[in-house]
Design goal:
Helix content is 10%, strand content 72%. It is built from 1 helix and 5 strands; from the N terminus they run βαββββ. The chain has one helix at 5-13, and strands at residues 2-3, 20-34, 37-51, 56-72, 75-93. A hairpin with a 4-residue loop joins β3 and β4 (56-72).
């Protein structure tokens, strides 16, 4: 679990080691907390292509984003984010 902006940024920097990434953002559950405050749970499957030199792999990560959104002006902003990795699976790439 990566909790807070600094930890999420650190996790995103780790993506630089991959040749390519792809994120499929799925369903989102929003729960009102207070006036102008909403908690969100977002489901995501992320693919990370890694070149080992003699072969390539796809590390598939099943993750949840736990966000708190706040109303700002005419839109919404992410106030806090927690990244939860549920499980990973490494697959060969042909």
């Amino acid at each position: 679990i990566r909790d807070g902006t600094d930890k999420v940024i650190e996790a995103m920097q780790g993506l630089l080691r991959y040749e390519a990434t792809s994120h499929l953002v799925g369903q989102q559950v929003l729960t009102p907390v207070d006036d102008g405050v909403v908690d969100g749970l977002t489901y995501c499957t992320a693919h990370h292509l890694f070149d080992h030199g003699d072969h390539r792999t796809d590390t598939v990560m099943h993750i949840h984003y736990h966000d708190r959104f706040v109303a700002v002006g005419d839109g919404w902003r992410v106030a806090t984010r927690r990244l939860e990795v549920l499980w990973t699976d490494e697959q060969p790439v042909n």
